[in-house]
Each structure stands twice: as structure tokens, then as C-alpha cells.
Design a protein that fits this description.
The chain has nine helices and eleven strands. The chain has 340 residues and is an alpha+beta fold.
Length: 340
């Protein structure tokens, strides 16, 4: 990790924890200043029937229990930082989850204290509804804000020697692979390559099958309908075909739905790369503002740089298949430039 990325991670971790610690100190001061209106011992835990089954003194609750519980929020943030090497998405989720947990804990403490003001017998204490609702809302907003604003740089993906060789062959106009793919491109035929996230697709179908059987067994038609719709959606999004022809690159999902075609005049470059699936949002067909494509899993992929900010990514089984696809795209790009 370079110095700037390390400093960025440290600032976010320290900033988030400082915010939670300051809020914790403010709540502790408020509780001690208001201790005259609180019972000698606070109810801090309730059973499933809403009965108090745990009490603590105010100093013990504020000075020991609260910091210990906030430690779990710090642990989640640290776990998120440690996952940056695997995926920036996991790092952002960990940081956001830590902030949400910390904010919720602070809100829960406030609800406990507010619910016992001017209460003589803590065994009759209940959790106030409005502080709980406010804490949940604040935690959700803070977590969403962290998830949107925290943007760690992706850790470099180690490039295998096979990926480097495949990329060099696909982009070297003098290579045998480039020559054969130019001949194929001149024939103006459409090459179809199957795309399938087999593991995710089978897991989706098995889950939907189990849900459908459960819906039939327990006479829950809505569950059976959701299972059928989920299986159809999973099959479409996790099975596709890559079409490479003279007009551009296109994905056909589920054997029937054609996605928007990418013209060769929009493709700035095509390269063979090693990718992590979570860096592009997950498995199957993905599409958003900055990246997308069809991703069967982490591994060898053809990365098409489209326009200035957009990438389209397609993963393949093996470096040879990726090299052929990349070389064919480059061949069509070259023919298009000659025609223009």
C-alpha cells in the first residue's frame, strides 16, 4: 500500500472513531449531569417478554460497558480496511457497518437513559420508542454516508505471467494470433462465445427450488411465485452469450435479451487483465455508470475501455480464450479505422 493510500485509510478510521468517541463522551457527560433524575441502578437488559433481567450502576454502564461495546464498531472498521486487498466494496461495507453499529449503540444507550429519567424503580423501565427510532435512522444515514464518501483505491491485482503474455499477443499486430483474428474479422461473421457463472447460477436455482417446494408444502403461493421469478431472473442474469461481429460487441442474456451494443468506435483499448469480481460489483451481468459487463468470477478477463470513464469487463475460462477475444476486438477496431 503506498503512502497516500495508507494515509487515506488512517484518516478515515481515526476520523470515524473520533466522531464516535466524542459522541460517547458527550452522552456520558449528559448522563452524569442528569444523574439526579436517574435511579441508583439502571436497567440495561430485557428478556423476550420485555422484563428487566440486567441492571448496572451508572458509572459501570457509562465508563466500562459503553466503551467495550464501541470496540466492536472499531473491529468492524478494521476488518473492512483489512479486506481492501480483496475488494474495495468489502472495505466500504466494513467501514459503513462499523459506523452504523457504533451509532446504533450510542442511540441505544440514549434510549436506555431517557426511558429511566424520573423513574424510582428500574425494574419497571422500558425502552423509549422515539430514541430507538431516531438512533436507527441516524445509524442508517451515517452508514449510507460513509459508504458513499469512503472511496479507497483498489489494491493492485497481481498479474500472472500468462495474462501478460496473452495481453501482449492480443495487442501485438505482428503476432500470429493477431493475424489470424484479422482474417476472421474480415469475413464479417458474428462470433458467439458462451458466458455463464455456473456456480452462482446453480446455487440460485437450488435456492429457488427449495423455496418453491417450501411454498407448495406450506401452501404459500406467494413464496412459490417468488421462487419461479427468482429462478427465471437468476438464469437470465447468470447465463449469456458474447456476440462479436462487424458492428460491435454485444451481450445476449438468457439466450433472448440483447443488451446495448458497444460500437468499435467507442472502444479506446482492449486488454487482457486479471480482475477481482467484487471490484465490479459481483457475479453475472453487471451494468452501472462506471463499469460492468458479464463476470463469471475472479480471474482472466478482457477489459474494454469505453469512452473516458466506462469499462466493460468479460471473464473467460483460460488465458487463451481471453487472448483470442481481445485480439478479435482489436482486429475489428483496426478494420473500422481503415474504413473510416
Amino acid at each position: 500500500m503506498d503512502r497516500s493510500a495508507e494515509r487515506y485509510q488512517r484518516l478515515w478510521l481515526c476520523g470515524n472513531m473520533a466522531l464516535l468517541v466524542l459522541a460517547c463522551v458527550a452522552i456520558a457527560l449528559w448522563a452524569f449531569l442528569d444523574s439526579a433524575r436517574l435511579p441508583a441502578e439502571l436497567a440495561v437488559h430485557w428478556n423476550a417478554r420485555g422484563e428487566v433481567n440486567g441492571i448496572e450502576s451508572l458509572p459501570v454502564f457509562v465508563l466500562t460497558t459503553l466503551p467495550i461495546r464501541l470496540f466492536s464498531a472499531a473491529a468492524l472498521m478494521l476488518a473492512g480496511l483489512s479486506m481492501r486487498g480483496q475488494s474495495t466494496l468489502l472495505a466500504r461495507c466494513g467501514m459503513a457497518a462499523g459506523m452504523m453499529l457504533g451509532a446504533f449503540i450510542l442511540g441505544l444507550v440514549m434510549a436506555i437513559i431517557v426511558g429511566q429519567r424520573d423513574l424510582q424503580d428500574s425494574s419497571m423501565a422500558t425502552l423509549e420508542g422515539w430514541p430507538m427510532a431516531a438512533s436507527i435512522l441516524a445509524a442508517a444515514l451515517l452508514g449510507a454516508g460513509v459508504a458513499m464518501l469512503y472511496r479507497p483505491e483498489p489494491a493492485p491485482v497481481p498479474e500472472s505471467s500468462q495474462a501478460r503474455v496473452a495481453d501482449r499477443m492480443a495487442n501485438d499486430l505482428r503476432s500470429l494470433l493477431a493475424t489470424t483474428q484479422r482474417a476472421l474479422a474480415q469475413q464479417s461473421t458474428v462470433l458467439e462465445i458462451g458466458l455463464s457463472a455456473i456456480g452462482a447460477r446453480n446455487a440460485c436455482l437450488l435456492t429457488c427450488l427449495a423455496a418453491g417446494v417450501a411454498g407448495w408444502w406450506w401452501s404459500l403461493p406467494w413464496l412459490a411465485i417468488c421462487a419461479v421469478l427468482g429462478a427465471a431472473g437468476g438464469w437470465i442474469l447468470l447465463t449469456g452469450t458474447l456476440l462479436i461481429g462487424p458492428d460491435g460487441v454485444q451481450v445476449r442474456l438468457g439466450g433472448m435479451i440483447r443488451c446495448k451494443r458497444i460500437g468499435y468506435d467507442r472502444i479506446a483499448s482492449a486488454h487482457v487483465r486479471e480482475i477481482r469480481a467484487l471490484d465490479y460489483g459481483g457475479i453475472g451481468y453487471r451494468s452501472n455508470i462506471t463499469d460492468g459487463g458479464f463476470i463469471a468470477g475472479s480471474g482472466t478477463a478482457v477489459v474494454l475501455k469505453v469512452d473516458q470513464y466506462l469499462e466493460r469487463v468479460f471473464t473467460f475460462q483460460g488465458h487463451q480464450c481471453a487472448a483470442r477475444v481481445c485480439a478479435l476486438v482489436n482486429a475489428h477496431r483496426g478494420l473500422g479505422a481503415v474504413r473510416r
